[in-house]
Description:
Oligomer: single chain
Number of strands: 2
Shape: globular
Order of helices and strands: HHEEHHHHH
Distance between the termini: 31 Å
Number of helices: 7
Helix content: 40-55%
Strand order of the largest sheet: 1-2
Mean pLDDT: 88
Low-confidence stretches: none
Amino acid sequence: MAKLNYMDVAKYLYQNTNNNMSNLKLQKMMFFAYIKYYEKYGEELFDDEFEAWVYGPVLPDLYYSFYRLFLIEDNKDDQNIKDKNIKDVLNEVIKEYDNKGAFELVKISHEHFIWQKARNGLDEFEPSNNKLNIKKHLNENIKTKIRK
């Protein structure tokens, strides 16, 4: 399966939620979707890399282009995501997290070991562009579980 463009995933999440999507909330939902898809299928959902910003994982390019999402027409039939497995994972993420506020999602993302590893040694509000290396850490976690 070819990886998606991160913007296609962002558009899907944005268009299929209850319309209280902020940049902060979208970033966390993207993180959860990426992890859930990788854990389920062993493949990356998209190519872009998350960074360990103060308020949780962030895709910088999406962060700076977020307001372009407001220009998207509400035509849900014109989406680039055709793969059922991807849609299923994204819909699971929407179901699990759409009713939560942005800062609740920040708290949840801060509890994830991958974000904590990327922020290791940094002060709480210290800026960072450390990469999360999600694939590496999830693969290490899987190997550790297998050894036990």
